[in-house]
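User: Predict structure, ligand L-2-keto-3deoxy-gluconate.
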Amino acid sequence: MPEIISPVITPFDKENKIDKEKLKIHAKNLIDKGIDALFLNGTTGLGPSLSFSEKLENLRAVYDITNKIILQVGSLNMDETLKLVKLSKDYEIIAIASYPPYYYPRIPEKQIIKYFKVLCDHSVHPVYLYNYPTATGKDIEARIIKNLDIKGVKDTNENIAHSMEYKRVKEEMKVYNGSDLLVAASLLLGLDGSVASSTNYLPELLVKIKNSIIEGKIKEALKLQKILSEIIETSRSFGNLSANYVLCEYFQGYNLGKPRAPIFELEDDEKNALLNNLKKMKEELIEMKIMKE
Ligand code: FW2
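Assistant: Predicted complex:
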């Protein structure tokens, strides 16, 4: 069965601390609405901006709600990454995941392989690769990880052939595409699922896309994908990492705090313009009974 995974937003309070109560309410809502697993400390969760203890805090808070967790542990501080891997032993979660060491240019491929080998050697959980070349500057292609004990990959890539290549090279590996624009396509092409930031504010829509495909209602799935893609394009024009927080309140009805700089909160006029641009799409979703008013 294909899965819809949510890269969970990290809510911050006025003091710029993680708001654990808001995070728990959010995690519960996502699971209750049929999301299959939660990806913590990802891009949408502002993972690269979180300290070691904040990444752990996210795990502890969400673990009170569910153990359907993939824990992103990557950072540029290897000691802290391995400390997190070690501590994750005490939690019965699905997997740990990591982006490759980023920022540093021209790291030889051999060292990237070494990085993931060290993670595999230290983890009691399956290890997943988080490949997001646009963000990290490194594309960890299928051939690079072929001989590693990597059990899954989240490929944030709008070239879906790139995601499919992992499946061709390593059939037993779980392969998820990470683009909100390719949710229906990923499932139709037989990938294991999708990790999409829009699950945070429209879980019912993404679960409906999945169910439509399972039931063979392809036209319906593509129609829903079109609405989702329009929402994503609109959100991107305001900076989707900031917009995610506003959209959660707009579509799900609860406040998720705010992002933390260097990802800034949208200003009031931006919020109003964003929501104004989305009005028609929300009405359409209500009319289609995907969501309530
Ligand atoms: C994450 C994701 C989703 C994304 C994508 C970025 O960790 O946030 O990569 O939504 O725009 O997997």
